[in-house]
Amino acid sequence: MTSTLHCPRCGFVNSVTVTACIQCGSGLFTQQAPNPYLPTAAPVAPQQPHAPPPAFGGYSTASPPAYGMVPSYGLPPQQLGFGTFNPLPDNGIWQHGNELVMHKQAVLPDVCVVCNCPAEGVRLRKKLRWHSPWLLLLLLVNVIVFAVVASILQKRATVDLGVCEKHLMRHKNFYWMSWLLCVTGIIGLLVSISQSSGWIALGGVGLIVAGAVCGTMSKLIGVSRIDETHIWLKKVHPDLMAQFPNWLSNPYRPMK
Questions:
Q1: Which residue spans within 123-239 are E strands per DSSP?
Q2: Is the predicted pLDDT of residue 4 greater than 80, yes or no?
Q3: Residue 95: in which H helix or E strand, if any?
Q4: pLDDT at 54
Q5: Cβ neighbours of residue 154 under 8 Å, at least 6 residues apart?
Q6: SS (HEC) of 5-57
Q7: DSSP label at 211?
Q8: Where does residue 76 fall: left (phi above 0), alpha (psi -120 to 50 degrees), or beta otherwise?
Q9: 126, 119, 118, 113: which is closest to 238 by C-alpha?
Q10: Which of 17-21, 77-81, 86-90, 113-117 has the largest mean confidence?
């Protein structure tokens, strides 16, 4: 085996263990033609991305996928350390007499709350408000006092209702009809003031009353109570409520 190399630039004889000429300093080898007499390092395999950790205790450690469709009813699973769990029994939905009691985080089944027909993924988001009926006594004092106190003490909740196409269209029709009648009635009252006409004023009042009636008819459900964690709904179809356990069987229900 050759033990020396000639520099291609100056012709100086160098040892095979060097990579640059000792006399002129020019390189003896290039990246395309490396030194064949020196040992080469083994190629390093590219690092693979970290694989997700294995399942532990029957619970998946991976993040739950985002809902691509309406989730099944009940409480969504909560994250706790290594996995998920259901914080309350009975999926957070119960029936109590003619009322449906549900946790604020629970999801109702994918059926219409009015007729119990399949909702096919259609949801109507409603913002509910409730205050104690005893606050109505403040109307005897002053309407403004009642409005201020009720707005402060009222409880709020948001619920996504399953609604079939028929009842969704009915809700929209009465809702927009209510607004149209009320706005027309207010315009009629303003015209009656400028025209000093009692008949126009009477018609305006009648339109506002009709609008209030349509607004009441547009409501799909009613709410009888809201507390810090639960909602009590009225006018829910009996067959829908029948599939849930009794509210009294919930050991974690509020005592008041």
A1: 123-130, 155-162, 222-226, 230-234
A2: no
A3: strand 93-96
A4: 41
A5: 129, 130, 131
A6: EECCCCCCEEECCCCECCCCCCECCCCCCCCCCCCCCCCCCCCCCCCCCCCEC
A7: H
A8: beta
A9: 113
A10: 113-117
Q: What share of the chain is helix, strand, coil (3-state, %, to 5)?
A: 30, 20, 45
Looking at the DSSP assignment, which residues form a beta bridge with residue 101? Answer: 94, 232
Helix (H, G, I), strand (E, B) or coil at 242: coil
Amino acid at 228: E
For the ranges 10-24, 127-141, 145-159, 237-251, the lowest mean pLDDT is seen at 10-24
> How many residues in total does the chain contain?
256
**C-alpha distances in Å from residue 137, one per residue of 144, 209, 256:** 13, 23, 22
What's the start-to-end Cα distance of the chain, in Å?
97
Give the relative orientation of helices 198-217 and 165-195 as an angle to the nearest 10 degrees: 160
Judged against a pLDDT cut of 70, whether residue 56 lies above it is answered with: no
The one-letter amino acid code at 2 reads T
- Give CA–CA dist 56/46, Å, rounded: 29
pLDDT > 50? residue 76: yes
**Cα–Cα distance measured from residue 3 to residue 36, given in angstroms and rounded to the nearest whole number:** 12
d(CA 131, CA 254): 17
Residue with tokens 């829908």: 240
Q: What is the tens place of the pLDDT at every residue in 184-224? A: 999 988 888 888 888 888 888 999 999 999 888 888 888 99
